[in-house]
Amino acid sequence: MRRLRIAIQKKGRLAEKSIALLIKSGLDFDFHKDRLIYECQDFPIDLMLVRDDDIPEYVADGVCELGIAGENVVLEKGSAVDISTRLGFGTCRLSLAFPAQTPFPGLEFLESKRIATSYPNILKKFLRERGLSSTVVELQGSVEIAPALQIADAVFDLVSTGGTMRSNDLREVHTVLESQAVLIRTRKMIPSEIEIDLQRLLQRIVGVLRASQSKYIMMNAPRSALKSVQEILPGMEEPSILPLSGGSDRIAIHAVARETIFWDTIERLKAVGASSILVLPIEKVIA
Ligand code: PRP
Ligand code: ZN
For a pocket test of ligand 1, which of 50, 139, 160, 171 has the largest count of ligand atoms closer than 8 A to its C-beta? Predict the structure, then answer.
């Protein structure tokens, strides 16, 4: 019988973190052979390792029910898939850039310019919406060298660390799209027994994502500081309050914080009288 199938990137910026997410969701694969499809041992799902650019089509066609791909690739392909959830990794952006010495007065400067890209659909949509008639030069890769080769005046490309732009003496002038890894699902009919497994997996993935964004925080503080503590930790859900032995006016506050806790947050907690502050990772959050 056919099992649930998920497509992920074989090599590249999303590959490792996609697999890490699946492993954290309790899926185990035997990765020692170089294969296209891996069967999961402890969950009824098969994993397909493919080129990132092909993932949206596999999912649209129903070859795989699920896929993990960059939102940029999903939008560029325009495939008939639904985005189930954003995954919080693989963040990058699609930006317009000019050679560093070219002055850039504003977007109208793009008019009649040649722009090299491997994202022609997203770029054309952007230009259409702004009423700009630039020439789109489609390239499969190495877009960043197009200005030096004088086949384009500007580029529209993916920026992650910014290293590629810098080393090619290009300057970003405008961000068109912020992107990250997304979980996509097919719009094709899914047999009900596969849909059940899909929902189980989705719930696990959501649990892992919630946990990675949450922390368990414990501290002691004067009872009178409780309100300030809650203001400093806005993502904190109803905290547990425990009296401290010894009859002082200090209490222990335990809570799940849904937002990142920065050093700055901890310093502010100390400033309102908190002490013995512990911040612990959470492994799973099940609503
Ligand atoms: C992208 C992009 C740049 C580079 C930018 O290519 O085309 O070359 O990454 O990353 P940086 O800002 O960290 O230097 P990628 O390697 O993803 O290949 P692909 O677009 O062909 O899949
Ligand atoms: Zn690619």
Answer: 160
Residue-wise pLDDT for 182-218, tens only, equals: 999 999 999 999 999 999 999 999 999 999 888 999 9
Residue range(s) in the chain whose domain bears CATH number 3.40.190.10: 4-90+181-211, 92-179
pLDDT digits (tens, 9 = 90+) for 14-55: 999 999 999 999 999 988 778 889 999 999 999 999 999 999
Instruction: Determine the Cα–Cα distance for residues 149 and 212; give it in Å rounded to an integer.
Output: 44
Dmax over CA atoms of the chain, in Å, equals 78
Residues paired with residue 179 on neighbouring β-strands, in sequence order? 92
Whose tokens are 């892992």? That residue is 208
Fold topology of 214-281:
Alpha-Beta Plaits (3.30.70)
Instruction: Please give the C-alpha separations between residue 85 and each of 75, 116, 157, 277, in angstroms, as whole numbers.
Output: 15, 31, 24, 33
Q: What is the pTM of this model?
A: 0.86
- In the CATH scheme, what is the homologous superfamily, with its name and number, of domain 92-179? Periplasmic binding protein-like II (3.40.190.10)
* Residue 191 alpha carbon to ligand 1 centre in Å: 37
Of 219, 224, 282, residue with least CA distance to 252: 219
Element (H, E) at 271: helix 263-271
**Confidence band for 260, pLDDT divided at 50, 70 and 90:** confident
Residue 29, phi-psi category: left (phi > 0), alpha (psi -120 to 50), beta (remainder) = beta
Q: What ranges make up the beta strands (E) of 170-214?
A: 170-179, 181-186
Residue 11 Cα to ligand 2 midpoint, Å, equals 9
